[in-house]
């Protein structure tokens, strides 16, 4: 079969849901119900599972237990340690090696015990502790005595939570492709609940830490499934191109809403066992399967049923011509040569094979790593600042709302590169400035922390679409998956960086600030993507941004390039002359006369497998 016949058959049997969505409704009642009642609420459990652990491991004031002073009040026993000038005693890790019964019998003082203390007495390690439960009523620190020599154990628990993440995202990513979105999401949610139940039943620290690894398996996935699967399903398949950026921003907003809700739940539920249960309530919503996924599996009738339901609720009718065209496509068998071509796609080594792609891959991965480290690190660090940990956590969550909105507006006017650089640099500088503040400037430190969280949240939102636009379509899934995976491994380190704050409150902020500034400055070397046709093949990916100059670096507001302005556009023009690249030309939207994106003005295709379904495993 010659190229012309092949092109005709391809055009006849090609099915584009974007062509039928304007007919049956781009963002009608069906999509709105699915968005507000299903997709967005499904993003909330991630914040609960990821950050409830911070409040399970609260460290209350503590001091050595003194059974011989049981006749005195807890406040009197506490003052022995609070008013001591011996550091080890004041920290509640050492006690006076004396017999208090003999001291009391030989003394005429019976009221204030601190008046009896002789700081020259010998010291010994404590083997049990008392805790002030007036504010922190319950935590694993109290139940498992995680203080003094064991005070690093809660940090190990956070590292255990993050350790399960890279394993879980890959495992549930594979399940998404094999058993479908709805089943994999509920399996992920069931795993989260099972891990939370084990957490609530923990009898010792290592039982508790193991249960946190199980919960950690679901923490990225339970957010990424609604975000990348359902939102991609909604944004790429059931919603027209004009509303896709809106849905992405709303997903981030609902994730933030989950964090704000968590601050309220933790304030009212002070028992860590009940908190583990209260923050793992299942979402009993039945999420519909993706039509593209159903079509890829040959389940035509189920896919048509979803589309017909969509049309009926939106008050429209699914065209009969589309139904017929859909069935014709699914009946056509793929040739062996096409299968071989699809199986021989580029691998992960293609990210580093050529110099320009290698440089961009390194910079993207480092910026993703820095964003992950600083964003999660500041989120973990928030409750330790200010005078009220619940209010501090709430404020650190609230600032993400305007951050998302401002970021959304700037991306459409200033592009991706400069907003990313400014956000990361300003976040880093505000963190570093805290080093110059006196120790008692708690409120000022909190304000600078909130500004850092505001700016890093913006860059955290930018890095996802920016990375997707920089990687060519053939490498987009592999590239994003590799960068996100390496960045996720860095999250195991961030709890130990925050642990340094026990001795010096601002030291973790200094480390995160330096990392953020370096990430922001190096990000300027990446090419801008706003207004540019983005690369599809590996060859185009190497050419995109290859002729980068210092003039490009200092251009804050990207200009819309002319139709044939540089070597990359010339390359794209030449490639589009070939009949085999017809789909590349169609991707620009010229055939249909409408823009693929209204808010996001760069053109980006989603990586598909041989059946036309979004390659979600690669995305994970």
Automatic annotation (TrEMBL):
Keyword Transmembrane helix: yes
GO molecular function: transmembrane transporter activity
The keyword Transmembrane is assigned to this record: yes
Gene Ontology cellular component terms for the protein in this record: membrane
The entry's keywords: Membrane, Transmembrane, Transmembrane helix
Coiled coil: none
Residues annotated as domain Major facilitator superfamily (MFS) profile: 100-531
Domain of life assignment: Eukaryota
Region listing for Disordered, in residue ranges: 578-599
Subcellular location: Membrane
Transmembrane segments: 33-51, 152-173, 185-209, 221-239, 246-265, 390-411, 418-437, 443-466, 478-499, 505-524
InterPro entries reported in the protein's UniProt record: MFS_dom, MFS_sugar_transport-like, MFS_trans_sf
Topology versus the membrane: Multi-pass membrane protein
Primary subcellular site in the record, as a coarse category: membrane
PROSITE patterns found in the cross-reference section: MFS
Entries under PANTHER family matching the protein: SOLUTE CARRIER FAMILY 22 MEMBER (PTHR24064)
UniProt name for this protein: Major facilitator superfamily (MFS) profile domain-containing protein
């Amino acid at each position: 079969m010659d190229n012309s016949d092949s092109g005709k058959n391809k055009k006849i049997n090609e099915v584009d849901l974007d062509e039928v969505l304007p007919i049956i409704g781009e963002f009608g009642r069906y999509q709105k119900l699915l968005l507000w009642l299903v997709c967005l609420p499904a993003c909330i459990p991630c914040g609960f599972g990821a950050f409830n652990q911070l409040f399970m491991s609260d460290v209350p004031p503590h001091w050595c237990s003194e059974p011989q002073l049981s006749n005195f009040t807890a406040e009197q026993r506490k003052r022995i340690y609070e008013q001591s000038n011996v550091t080890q005693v004041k920290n509640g890790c050492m006690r006076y090696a004396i017999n208090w019964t003999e001291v009391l019998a030989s003394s005429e003082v019976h009221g204030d015990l601190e008046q009896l203390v002789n700081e020259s007495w010998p010291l010994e390690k404590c083997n049990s502790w008392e805790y002030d439960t007036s504010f922190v009523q319950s935590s694993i620190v109290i139940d498992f005595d995680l203080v003094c020599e064991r005070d690093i154990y809660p940090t190990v628990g956070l590292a255990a939570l993050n350790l399960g993440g890279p394993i879980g995202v890959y495992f549930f990513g594979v399940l998404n492709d094999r058993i479908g979105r709805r089943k994999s999401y509920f399996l992920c949610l069931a795993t989260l609940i099972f891990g939370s139940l084990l957490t609530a039943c923990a009898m010792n620290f290592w039982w508790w830490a193991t249960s946190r690894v199980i919960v950690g398996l679901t923490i990225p996935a339970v957010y990424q499934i609604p975000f990348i699967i359902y939102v991609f399903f909604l944004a790429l398949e059931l919603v027209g191109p004009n509303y896709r950026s809106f849905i992405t921003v709303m997903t981030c907003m609902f994730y933030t809403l989950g964090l704000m809700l968590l601050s309220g739940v933790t304030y009212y539920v002070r028992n860590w066992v009940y908190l583990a249960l209260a923050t793992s309530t299942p979402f009993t919503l039945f999420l519909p399967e993706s039509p593209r996924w159903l079509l890829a599996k040959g389940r035509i009738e189920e896919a048509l049923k979803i589309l017909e339901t969509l049309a009926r609720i939106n008050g429209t009718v699914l065209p009969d011509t589309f139904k017929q065209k859909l069935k014709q496509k699914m009946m056509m068998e793929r040739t062996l040569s096409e299968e071989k071509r699809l199986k021989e796609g580029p691998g992960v080594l293609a990210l580093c094979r050529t110099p320009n792609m290698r440089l961009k891959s390194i910079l993207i991965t480092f910026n993703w790593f820095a964003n992950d480290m600083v964003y999660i690190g500041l989120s973990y660090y928030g409750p330790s600042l200010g005078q009220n940990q619940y209010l501090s956590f709430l404020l650190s969550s609230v600032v993400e709302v305007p951050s998302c909105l401002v970021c959304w507006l700037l991306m459409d006017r200033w592009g991706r590169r400069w907003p990313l650089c400014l956000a990361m640099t300003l976040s880093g500088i505000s963190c570093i400035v805290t080093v110059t503040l006196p120790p008692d400037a708690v409120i000022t430190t909190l304000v600078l922390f909130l500004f850092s969280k505001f700016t890093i949240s913006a860059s955290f939102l930018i890095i996802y679409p920016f990375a997707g636009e920089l990687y060519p379509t053939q490498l987009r899934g592999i590239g994003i998956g590799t960068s996100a995976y390496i960045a996720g491994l860095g999250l195991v380190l961030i709890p130990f960086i925050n642990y340094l704050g026990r001795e010096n409150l601002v030291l973790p902020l200094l480390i995160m600030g330096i990392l953020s500034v370096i990430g922001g400055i190096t990000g300027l070397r990446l090419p801008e993507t706003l207004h540019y046709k983005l690369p599809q093949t590996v060859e185009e990916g190497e050419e995109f941004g290859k002729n980068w100059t210092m003039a490009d670096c200092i251009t804050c507001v990207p200009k819309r390039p002319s139709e044939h302005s540089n070597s990359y556009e010339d390359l794209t023009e030449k490639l589009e002359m070939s009949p085999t690249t017809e789909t590349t030309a169609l991707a620009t939207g010229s055939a249909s006369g409408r823009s693929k994106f209204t808010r996001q003005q760069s053109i980006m295709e989603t990586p598909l497998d041989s059946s036309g379904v979004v390659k979600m495993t690669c995305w994970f």
